[in-house]
Amino acid sequence: MTTSTSAPQPEVDPAIRAELGRLRDSIDNIDAAVVHMLAERFKCTQQVGHLKARHALPPADPAREARQIDRLRQLAENAKLDPAFAEKFLNFIISEVIRHHEQIAADSSPSGDTSPR
């Protein structure tokens, strides 16, 4: 997000500015938590990718993905979050996970050997 620094800033009550700062600090903390949670999730999915590659399992699991999307949509509804947004977000993550799994499979077995290393 970009803001113009050349535009004059309106006079804002210091209490409003303080509240805005407090809310933005909370947003920053939440963003950091989201990034850390995604990093943990991808650590797990990397392990899944290696397991799948060792046992010649396909990178994608459409049935599981559909169950996860349904589950996340329900969680979103319960949390008063737009389920369509939650689904788009999960679809983005799933596509990245599948890309990683495909890469792991390609990197782990150039000769077709799927035995554990």
Instruction: Please describe the biggest sheet, giving its number of strands, its sense, and whether it closes into a barrel.
Output: none
Low-confidence parts? none
Number of helices: 3
Overall structural class, as computed from helix and strand content, comes to mainly alpha
Which strand-content bin applies to the residues? under 5%
Main attributes?
single chain, elongated, mainly alpha, 117 residues
Explain the overall architecture.
There is one protein chain. The protein has 117 residues and is mainly α. α1 runs parallel beside α3 and α2 packs antiparallel against α3 (83-108). The chain is 72% helix and 0% strand. The protein has helices at residues 14-54, 62-78, 83-108. The protein has 3 helices and no strands.
Quick take:
This protein is an all-alpha fold and 117 residues long.
Give the SSE map:
Layout: H1 14-54, H2 62-78, H3 83-108
Helix pairs in contact: 1-3, 2-3
